[in-house]
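Lab notebook: predicted structure, single chain.

Context: the supervisor wants predicted structures on file for every construct in the current expression panel, including those that have not yet been purified. This is the next one on the list. No modifications to the sequence; it matches the entry in the shared construct table.
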Amino acid sequence: MKRLVPAIALAAGALAALPAAAQFQKPEDAVRYRQSVMFLQGQHMARLGAMASGRVPFDAKVAQENAAILDVIDHMPFVAFVDGTDKGNTRARPEIWAERAKFDAAAAKLQDEVAKLNVAAKSGNFDQFKAAVGAVGAACKACHDSYQRPAN
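Prediction complete. Output recorded below exactly as produced.
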């Protein structure tokens, strides 16, 4: 796990350095990329949510590891919402492109809440951790409610 976080950070930094359009050869590549990253986000949030809700015992080390990963990958999917990726195998609503400033603000809100979660997880304080997980979940839900089509 200790090697995974720096590797993810390095990959994210490399991707952020490239112009978004240059990162993807085809629109469907961008769609698959963002879906893959969001799948990873969901996996790590599920682990944190299980601890926050008491379904599994709180483990400060596991919470710190998962929050650190989220803090890196939460920046990654948003570079893949480029023009032309609103069609095909995607649940992205057209409002993303029509309301780009609002969508970007929702992304920034998520990133801010995940940064707070990372700090709370490092504290080892369960109550702070639980509140921070709730705030991240609310940020995810708000964006999905506004910008994601329901599953078929």
